Amino acid sequence: MTNRLSHGTETMVLRKLGINETYQLAMYLLDQYRGTTLSCRYAIPPRLASIESRTQLEEAVKVAVVDTIMRHPMLQVSMMDATSKTPSWIQLQSLDLTQHIKWLYIGEHDDFEQTVQETFRVQLDDRFPDLSIKQPGWKITVIRQGNAPIMEVLLTWNHPQFDGAGAKVFHEDFLEMLNNAENGAYERTGLDGNILRLPQAPPLLPTPLESLKSLPLDLKYLAKVFWEETRPRFLNRDVSQAAWCPIRSSPYKTQYQVFSIDNPSLLAILALCRQNKTTITGLLNGLALFAFSSHLDNTVAPAFQSSTIMDHRRNLPPAPPGAPWVRCDRAVGNYVTQLPHRFDTELVARIRSKLPADPTEGKDLSADLQRELWAVSAQNRLEIVRKLETGLRNDLVGVFKWVTDWQQTMKDMAKKTRQFSWLVTNIGVLDGNYTSTRLSNTTTRSPTEPDDGQRWSIDRAQFGLSAEIPAAAIEFDAISVAGRGMCVSANWPDCAVDAMLGERIMADLERWLAQLARQS
């Protein structure tokens, strides 16, 4: 099947968008979501760090991006009929790299970190070019300052294209390509200046989750979901829903906060997590419960629901023969689902009874509260483990198969009571020191490979989502770089959540994590 594009060339429809892709597209079209960013700080080899090497540095980056594009077909495709009920991915003949790679040079006296954070925040709320112009929904922005031996690379994308775990793979593979490129050898087949001609053979796209795995639904689970979706509002007596935060759609603006944890502190916290049979994800859910319980009183929120984003790449079958991404866990695509958690009135009341009377005092957690924290965090981790063991049985994606009009569904959702007070997504540990063993069997460096002093590496990563209007009131995002520490960020819709509440909750998380690190 072919369709004619505006510039007169023909392209091929590759497949319809999957469930996750269509759901995210509907949110984007309704301005309920805008963009997602994963930013990494790269250490530049000395041979490319000087101002005099600017041209070579830009060429090295461009070629490494090209090599990453060729490994991951979801970076090569665009959408057709985006506003219809059945949008499709289509093959493109070429990419104009000037639309996907931007360089931002700042002066010696400018504040590098401030520039990074301001750019990060702006990009979260930026809209992508009109989908009708047929170009992939992703871009990278490179921030450089003089001769500094570092550069910040912000990857911002439209979520239908891929998820956060896919963005982590992008950065790891981009790092690999930078280190694999021979010094000065910047010729690539199909690359003519800034125009990349794509292969004529249709790219092999990652298969949607629902087409790879069965999504069995028990009748009891399906009936419960149906009742929750269709019952009249006056019959909804679920006090764990986030009625304290009504869904508002405009004006659209994301509030964003972030803090960092150094590696010694992170290792101390991880040791405590292991001792208490939980994980960073479980701990963040527990800390969020304490923070929300502290800043919202019982009359407003007697109980809570939260959501954990689950990456199901580990449950996928092997990558198909000939797939350029080689392994299923290295696919740049959409393979996440949500796992809901419920914190009942008895638990929340018990926690509140032990919290300081004045939440603005910013006190540390008592020994009694820490016991409660570890119990909640361990339970959260147990729920995640059980979900991973059961795979995709009774998963919301299975219910989503019955949705025929996602835009109408998301409009309707925005009129309902918000379900989740918070959401946690942790895209894990990024490998910032590329080793040639990741995708090959070689265990020694070849004679032509540069030594460690001439190699690229990643020292820091930061992840963030734009406000998702009908989703959780506050969304927490975490990412670590192996041996380098962790960043924790949060976003919320400015029109629905009081900025002071978000800032105080983030201050609690930062202070309590620092306390736990000191105690280990």
TrEMBL record:
This is Alcohol acetyltransferase. InterPro entries: Alcohol_O-acetyltransferase, Atf2/Sli1-like. It comes from Heterodermia speciosa. GO terms for molecular function: N-acetyltransferase activity. SUPFAM superfamilies: CoA-dependent acyltransferases.
